[in-house]
């Protein structure tokens, strides 16, 4: 949760699940600062964040995600991973495929090439189970991030970095209630993706009004725009559209205009364009899970394990969100968003 500067608005709800706080990520950064071969004189990593370079043996880590090509959210995750890799003397092999069987094949290829560690997402965990189990059984350290909060432990993965998507959805639903919303449209851009479905399930649980789910195809944004437009025209009672990603939120802004609707747009996740939309009032708020940090910690945690057998979280997830970003605190992260790291 991004609270170190006191300007992000954290979720204050409770859940019985034991979690590990982001303070562990800060501890990691402090520990690594003492391991730099540059003697405290960091070098720029090329993406707006400075870092030193570890003098530990060169290692190879594969990062395999379910990224949809062109999604700016994943650019942030990749930059975080690259920053950690540059600092930790790691060769990072990044690959992605939105289709679960293809993603599983990429994991198998990484395992066959005998990488030193694997960081992966579990958006559709059932398809990933055999290959993840194979990696764990082979003794290759595996960490999960971003997707698979409820499934990673059952697959034998020791570390997870991301947010509890159901909890984040509950927080969003509670905020909708506080905002006076009566009927929300929760737009799922990839049916069957566990993280997205958990978000809408959380919204339904946390929101005291009525929630309707709309499935769209994120690979075809013109179709997304038309589908949301048609729904708003059909049901003028919808007063809030809940997007589950910045590109969908920005598309929904146009849909609201097309439909001459008074519905307000809220979303999960951010990018630089969304910062502008929040500043302009086109999007009311976003639930931030800090994607740069997820990528950074996934790689950094493997470096720690390979060189010191450390694990972060003690088996419990390390949470990177949720926190709300709105007009009250957007200025605190705007410069970082413009630099491509938030």
Automatic annotation (TrEMBL):
GO terms for molecular function: carbohydrate binding. PROSITE patterns: PROKAR_LIPOPROTEIN. Its main location: other. Residues 63-308 form the Periplasmic binding protein domain. It holds the Pfam family Peripla_BP_4. It is found in: Cell envelope. InterPro entries: Bact_Solute-Bind_Prot2, Peripla_BP_I, SBP_2_dom. GO terms for cellular component: outer membrane-bounded periplasmic space. Belongs to the bacterial solute-binding protein 2 family. This is Putative ABC transporter substrate-binding protein.
């Amino acid at each position: 949760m991004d609270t170190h500067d006191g300007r992000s608005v954290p979720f204050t709800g409770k859940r019985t699940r034991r979690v590990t706080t982001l303070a562990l990520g800060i501890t990691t950064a402090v520990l690594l600062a003492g391991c730099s071969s540059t003697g405290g004189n960091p070098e720029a990593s090329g993406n707006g964040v400075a870092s030193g370079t570890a003098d530990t043996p060169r290692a190879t880590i594969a990062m395999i995600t379910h990224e949809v090509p062109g999604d700016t959210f994943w650019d942030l995750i990749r930059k975080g991973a690259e920053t950690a890799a540059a600092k930790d003397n790691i060769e990072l092999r990044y690959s992605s495929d939105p289709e679960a069987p293809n993603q599983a094949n990429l994991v198998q290829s990484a395992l066959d090439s005998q990488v030193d560690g694997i960081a992966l997402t579990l958006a559709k965990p059932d398809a990933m189970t055999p290959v993840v189990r194979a990696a764990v059984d082979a003794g290759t350290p595996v960490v999960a991030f971003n997707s698979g909060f409820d499934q990673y432990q059952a697959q034998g993965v020791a570390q997870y970095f991301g947010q509890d998507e159901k909890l984040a959805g509950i927080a969003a639903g509670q905020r909708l209630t506080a905002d006076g919303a009566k009927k929300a449209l929760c737009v799922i851009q990839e049916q069957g993706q566990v993280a997205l479905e958990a978000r809408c399930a959380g919204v339904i649980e946390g929101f005291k009004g009525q929630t309707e789910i709309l499935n769209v195809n994120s690979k075809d944004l013109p179709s997304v725009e038309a589908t949301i437009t048609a729904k708003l025209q059909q049901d003028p009672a919808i007063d809030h559209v809940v997007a589950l990603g910045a590109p969908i939120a920005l598309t929904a802004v146009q849909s609201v205009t097309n439909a001459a609707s008074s519905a307000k747009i809220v979303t999960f996740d951010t990018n630089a364009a969304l910062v502008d939309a929040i500043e302009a009032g086109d999007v009311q708020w976003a639930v931030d899970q800090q994607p740069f940090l997820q990528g950074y910690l996934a790689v950094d945690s493997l470096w720690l394990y390979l060189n010191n057998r450390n694990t972060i979280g003690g088996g419990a997830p390390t949470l990177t969100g949720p926190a709300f970003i709105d007009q009250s605190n957007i200025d605190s992260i705007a410069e970082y968003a413009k630099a491509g790291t938030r």
